[in-house]
Amino acid sequence: MLTEDFKIRFYETDALGHVNNTVIPGWIETGRLPIFEFFGEMSPKTQSLIVARLEVDYLLPIYFGGHVTVNTYVSRLGGSSFDIITEIWQKDKLCAKGKTVLVYFDFQQERSVKLSDELKERLSTITHPEHPLDA
């Protein structure tokens, strides 16, 4: 599992004093960035990861004046795609949860690319200790 801590910035809050809902997808994206390193150089001229789906469940308000912990882990490995779960915690409470489906994609051929056994093995190292991988 990958873990990042973020200090909440004032401009991320709204008029009600809590973090705006548009900020959460950005934290989810930042939490998964280390995964991209597993795939080497990526660009529109090579193979890359693309987001096929992003879901966010807003469970509790997140407030300014502290920090959040963003936990990211792989929950499913498929043929050319995999699922990332992201949990956002503040003061030991789960405040938001996201699911991202990433697809390994070849831009030149405009098609998905099969995940190699080596990539699957590396991705399986960032699972959640309490949640086994889904097939």
UniProtKB/TrEMBL annotation:
InterPro entries per record: 4-hydroxybenzoyl-CoA_TE (IPR050563), HotDog_dom_sf (IPR029069)
Source organism, top-level taxon: Bacteria
Record flagged with keyword DNA-binding: no
Residues annotated as transmembrane: none
CDD domains found in the cross-reference section: 4HBT
Protein name: Acyl-CoA thioesterase
A Pfam family reported for this protein in Swiss-Prot or TrEMBL: 4HBT_2
Family: Belongs to the 4-hydroxybenzoyl-CoA thioesterase family.
A molecular-function term among this protein's GO annotations: fatty acyl-CoA hydrolase activity
Keywords, sorted A to Z: Hydrolase
